[in-house]
Write the C-alpha cells for this entry.
Amino acid sequence: MGLFVAMAIAVSACANDAYAPEHTDQPGSTSASRNLAGKSITVFAASSLTAAFNEIGTKFEQETGAGVTFSFGGSSDLRAQLEQGAPADVFAPADAKQMGLAKDAAVVDSDGTIFALNRLVVIVPRENRAGVITLQDLAKPDVKIALADENVPVGNYARQFLDNASADPGYGSGYKDAVLANVVTKAANVKEVAAAVQLDEVDAGVVYKTDVTPEIAQDVTTVEIPDVLNVIAIYPIALTTNGQAQAKDAAQAFISFVLSDAGQAILMSHGFLEAQ
Amino acid sequence: MAVRVERGRSLQVAAETVAIVIISAVVLLFLALPVFAIIERALEKTDVFDVASSARVTEALRLSFETTAISLALVIAFGTPLAYWLARTKFPGHEVLDALIDLPIVLPPAVGGLGLLMAFGRNGIVGSSLHDIGIDLAFTTAAVVMAQTFVASPFYIRAAKAGFEAIDRDLEDVAQTLGSSRAGVFLRVAVPAAMPALMAGAVMAWARALGEFGATIMFAGSFPGRTQTVPLAVYRSLETGVDVPLALSAILVVISFAVLLAFRLLMKRAAFTL
C-alpha cells in the first residue's frame, strides 16, 4: 500500500514536470497550455516565414510540449493544397488575397489576424556583372531578372512596386514593361528567387527584406526600394476548417503565441515589421 | 479415385484463374483509374474546349512538342553511333561507362538539374567560359532541351545498344567483305536490322522527355512560352484552379496513349513482315 502511494506520487510528479517544463509569464504558457503536451499540429506558412517560424516553433514546443510541423511554400501553392484537402491546422500566407481565396473556398474559418508586415527589396549578386546599382538599372536591356509568379504574393507585390514606379516621372511610364521584359523565370516562391540571385544565375530579384538572411547577405547586395514606391506585405494567420478537432486548442495556442510578445519579438528579430 | 483427383485439379485451376483475374483487375484498376479520372473530370467541365484552346494551354503544348522533338533528334543523332560503338567494342572498364550512361535514370531529376546548373550555368565549369563569349544557357529554351536530353538519352542508348548486340554479326561481316565501309555497314546493315529496338528506345526517350519536370525547373526555370513545358504548367496552374491543369493533363494523356498504342501496332506489323 505504502509503495503504491509512493509510486503514484512519483508518477504524478514526473507528469507535472513533463507538462510544465518551465514557468514564464508569456501568454503562450498559461495553465491552459498544460494539456497540449503530446498534441501535434501542422502549420502551412509562406516561404518568407521559414526562419522566423522555425524559431517560433521551437519556442512554442518548449513552452507547451506540443509538436509543430511546418510546410513552407508559395502561399498560393499552399492554399491550392488546402483546397485539395491537405491536412493542416493553421494557415499563414503572405497576403490578404490568398487568405481571402482560402476563406471563399471555406478552408479557413476567418480572414485571420494580421501578425506581421514586410517590405520589398531588390537583391543583386555580389559579383553584379550586369551593373545594377539603382532601381532604374533593372530596366536596362540584357539584365536577367527573377520574379515570383504573379499569383505568388511576393510576385504580386513586386508588380505593384513596378506599377508605383511607372507612375513616378523619375522612372517613366515604360518602366514596368521594360523590367518585365527582362524577367527570365517566374518562381513558385520567394526562396526560389533568392536562390537564383545567390547562385548568381540571374542579375537581380525582388524579395522581401526578411529574405536577406545573414547567410544570403554574404552573397548578395541589397538595393533598397524607397517608401513611396514600396509595398507593405501583410501576413494574416487563421485556423483551417479541416484541421484535427482534438488539436484545435494547440492550433489556437500557436496563433496566440505568434501574436504574443515573445512571438512578435522573434518576428522583429528576423526583420518583420510590427502589425499595428 | 482418379475422377476425384481430376475434379480436385480442375477446382484448383478454377481457383487459380479467379485469383489471377482478381489480382490483374486490381492492378489494372489502380493504373487506369487516375487516367480515367482526369479524362472524366476534364469532360465534366462545360468549357473544356475553351480552356484547351486558351493561350496558356496551347503555349505549353507547343513548347513541349517543339522541345521534345529537338531533344529526341539530338538523342538519336548522338545516341545511335554511341550505342553501336558500345555494342561492338569491348574494352576493360566498359561497365563503368555503361553505369555512367544509366545514371540519369536513377538520379532524381532535380539532382540532374542542379548538375546542369553547376556545369552549364553562367558560373558553371563550362558555362562560365560560354558566358564570356556571350552565351547564357540557363533559363532559356535551350536549357529545356538540355534537361530533356540529359534525362531521356539513357532510355534510347540502352535500347539501341541491346538492339545492336542482338544483330547477327555475320550480316555485317559479309557486307564488309563485299566492300562496304564501316559507316556503310552501320547505316545500311546495322541500323535497319536494329530498327525495332531503335524505335522502341526512341518512343521511351520521347515519353520521358515529355514528362520531364525536375531538371527543367532547376536549370530552365519556369516562364510561359519560353521554358514552361506542359508538366511545369500543370504544376504552376493548379494554384489558379483545376481547369487548366485538367485540360492540359487530359490532352497529354490522350496524345501519349495514342502514341504508345500506335507504336505497339506498328511493332506488331513489323514483327509479321520480318
Observations:
- Chain B is about 80% helix and 0% strand.
- The interface with chain A takes residues 117, 121-123, 136, 138-140, 221-224, 227-228, 235-236, 238-240 of chain B (CB under 8 Å).
- Residues 2-44 of chain B form the longest helix (43 residues).
- The mean pLDDT of chain B is 89.
